[in-house]
Amino acid sequence: MSNEDILNPKQMPHEPEKATLEGKNKFLGFWFFLGGETVLFASLFGTYLALNDSTAGGPGTEELFGLELVFVMTMLLLTSSLTSVYAMYHMKNNNFSKMMVWLGVTVALGFTFLGFEIYEFYHYIHEYEFTFRSSALGSAFYTLVGFHGGHVLFGLLWILTLMGRNAKRGLNLYNAPKFYIASLYWHFIDVVWVFIFTVVYLMGKVG
Amino acid sequence: MAKDTNSTHNEFEKAEHKQEMQHQVISFVMMIIFTIAAFALVVSDVSKYFTIPIILLLAVVQVVFQLYYFMHMKNKDHEMPALMIYGGIAVAFMTILTFTTIIWW
In chain A, how many domains are there? Predict the structure, then answer.
């Protein structure tokens, strides 16, 4: 049996993402990375919490934030998390085309989210002159939320690259772990957003 | 014969995946409800000493759903992921505690 046959079985094993040693290693390594990401975001959250009253005479959080936009963004990201779950469901059933469709929906929702975020920053800068340099709050806010936005962009490019690279290959035991890991990353982005909308926007609005 | 066992095995797996998917859709609905509850609480102008702990609790519960159902931490062979993520959360908790109290208080 050649290596090619091993990676392209007639029937997918129970958990295709962990069927090979490489897949198992990716799985463990990626969770290790997520543990580190948790600490990275904690340092940004800690900085934001310490500085969220330091407005330097500029607008404060209560004046700036609009909950309607944040609510829409939250729903978009939450839904995109579910669509990537659907993609992994079809991966486990070895249905490549449906997996690609749901990944496509996930990417579309992710880009819509990013568009809203860019509009939000644009709005703060032009309507309130609230920039990265205007106060300690500004620096902490744009660093935290911008870092999350950067993660969203990276995740989108990652999923798109995987989709493009494997479009003609179909699903096999070589790329199944790659799709699985990318979906874990996407869920983690949503986990971070849950704390951003709670700690930054909702708590900022309560005062 | 061998083919037969294979296909029943396949059916079993498909049913299992479907079952898991149902749980994930239920957890998605719960997450939506928690989100709406948190936003509603903030809009309704209740005392902030009530609102803040409740919305933080709602966020934590929602993230538990995300980790255990969407990211499959409830499945077996997830001891190492649990170690990694809880290790990360422990350090994260200390980092936030440090930044908000010990340095700035």
Answer: 1
Does the CB of A190 have a partner CB in chain B at under 8 Å?
yes
Long-range contacts of B72-77 (CB under 8 A, 24+ apart): B77/A18
Q: Cα–Cα distance between B65 and A43 in angstroms, integer? A: 24
A125: containing domain? 17-206
ipTM of the complex: 0.89
Please name the residue of chain A whose CA is at the shortest distance from the CA of residue B50.
A206
Is residue A31 within 8 A of residue A187, CB to CB? The reply is no
Give the model's pLDDT for residue B1.
41
| Residue to substitute from B21, B41, B71, interface A, most A β-carbons within 10 A | B71
Q: Quick one: closest CA in A to B26, which residue?
A: A82
Residue A4 lies in a domain: no
Residue pair B88/B70 in contact (Cβ under 8 Å)? The answer is: no
Per-residue confidence band for A7, with pLDDT thresholds at 50, 70 and 90: confident
Q: Write the residue in A75, A184, A199 that is nearest to B71 by C-beta.
A: A184
Q: Are A77 and A109 in contact (CB under 8 A)?
A: yes
Q: Which of A41, A46, A195 sits opposite B98 (nearest CB)?
A: A46
Q: What CATH number should be reported for the domain holding residue A148?
A: 1.20.120.80
Q: Is A46 touching B (CB cutoff 8 A)?
A: yes
pLDDT digits (tens, 9 = 90+) for A135-165: 999 999 999 999 999 999 999 999 999 999 9
Please report residues of A whose CB lies closer than 8 A to that of B76: none
CB atoms within 10 A of CB A189: 22
Task: Tell me the residue type at A193.
Answer: W
Q: What is the mean pLDDT of chain A?
A: 93
Closest CA to A187 of A81, A91, A88, A28: A81
Angle CA(A96)–CA(A164)–CA(B68) in degrees, nearest 5? 55
